[in-house]
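Structure, all two chains, one model.
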Amino acid sequence: MKRYVAAFSGMAVLLLLLIIFSICVGSVNISVSDIADIFTGANRTGAKYHIIYDIRLPRILAAVLLGGALSVSGFLLQIFFGNPIAGPYVLGISSGAKLFVAITMIVLLGHGIHINSFGMIAAAFVGSIAVMGFVLIISSKVNRNLLIVCGVLVGYICSAITDFFITFADDSNIVNLHNWSLGSFSGINWNNVYVISAVTLTTLVVTFIMSKPIGAFRMGESYALNMGVNVLAIRVAIILLSSVLSACVTAFAGPISFVGIAVPHLTKIITRTTKPIIMIPAVFLAGGIITLVCDDIARTVFAPTEISISSVTAVLLVPVVITMMIKTKKGEN
Amino acid sequence: MQHSGFCIKADNLKVGYEKKIIVDDIGFEVSSGEITTIIGPNGAGKSTILKTITKQLELMGGKITICDKDMQSMSFSDIAKKMSMVMTKRPHTELMTCFEVASTGRYPYTGRMGVLSKEDRDKVKEALRYTGALELADSDFNKISDGQKQRVMLARAICQDTDVIIMDEPVSFLDIKYKIDILDNIRDLARKKGIAIIMTLHELELARQISDKVICVGGGKVDKIGCVEEIFDGDYINRLYEIDEKSFDSITCNMMLPLKEDSAQVFVIAGGMESVNVIYRLARQGRAFYAGIISENDVAFRTAKAMAKEVVVTKAYYPIEESHINAAKKLIDGCTYYLCAVDEFGPYNSANKELLQYAIDTGKKKI
């Protein structure tokens, strides 16, 4: 219990400090006193106010919420497939969402229709579910390592088709699509943040309420059944929840790699448990922290040029995934 | 137990998977405090029956009744309060302590968020103590031995507080100590706590000791249901498993490897404990042999009967007759070697002393 209290309070403090740090860094330097002025209402005009309030803060909040959502989505998929290297990105689910969002945007923009945030999420959700359905069919036919390979291949196909559409679409808005399709938190506004909070936090609460049946899956399906879990219903619920979470991320920030796989494992190092009642909020917090760090790196290291968030997450998190795979292999022997 | 009569009853059950029926027309009843063991060859469908009863496989026909209720009409949670299980395959867990694993048995009783009450915790601890796994409570389930894991899994099934416990090969892959401990626990659960037990076992000698009722599955059907005495009778088991009549002795439950030589070249003058070792040695070498003259109540009788090509036997507490001696001499005549496994010929064993002399006199070689 003490460990959990320490873990949560530690992560909360770290997140708060990181948010302040993230507001400060960037192509325009901002001091902590500037932030204090703005939040106390002493200063509500000027360039700095605009940078903090309209650019950095929404971006930071989006990174935290979406990073958390992506990590919880990965945690759910790992439990669902009983596979420690499952995640929305490697299973191709993020790419499926990306493909559907791109097609929807291109088609609608071609007809002069502007799509709102919920429309984007809906398109991403359809894409996620489509790929998820495909992965589920495969999962009954292949072993768990091949499942990941199939997921990666599906992801490539979806990305290829997306690139194809983007290359041949001629609308000037498509330029933005290109950045988005690589993964980026830039250009997120307050309206987006409201929608993101509404969707991710609601889904998170529902997931948290379901921690008991989700936890029953930790020992495999047959024991879950023997505990009195309606296995089919919970499986469907886990799939829907993880799809909503990863769809929301892809709709606003494009596909972000490896956060979904790596964060649950990093979180376990701190919490030393796999209990969903602890893990769901902990993974969310840790995902927020890690994604925020990655986004800070993405936008500051080569400032003013931004690199894609996935480049950063890949470099930082792939070593984590590999270490974890070696550990799992050892554990199995 | 508030209900009357049986705890679990199967009527005209059809089990199988992917629309293929593996065992047809299964019918049995298990009362509280009764242990029912399912035996039969590999692939006969024993596990399929258990998986159907525990709802892991869809019922392909017939009816299962638990405590007077049709199982099909019960909710998952209601079934979980009536029936717990221990599977063959130990689960693979991640960062779960043994206490946590065992406490999953309390799942049907905890609230919305699955938080354990004091009563739940006490029941888990009590169950762990019962199976001798309490000191493992804080250990990582993945880091303990197979036998210890099985103790934890049994504790999990116990703290689920059910009328029925289903177990699929509960002692397979365990060493002799764990086999004894686990089955001792299981017997107590039935006898002292009145739990109805249904399990599959490959260890026939243990099945014989623990079962009230044995269900024999083979050839796509329930071949026979009965008490131990009816099942371990004559060569029934040998027929069920399609093995040679010499390969299994239903009285001692000994398994015997087949003898390789067609004709016996050795005569063993047998009787007493030492001859058991001698007989085993010959069997180990794969040599065929005759044995005699042994009384039915001799310690070596069952072994000799199971392993020797032919045994000259006398009825218990009857003197050895001339006809026995002649029969034995006839066997010695056909042999090249003899072996005397009797240390000392007692006053009632002059016949065997005579056989030894006969073997020497007829020029048989000693081995």
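Chain B has two domains: 6-248, 266-366.
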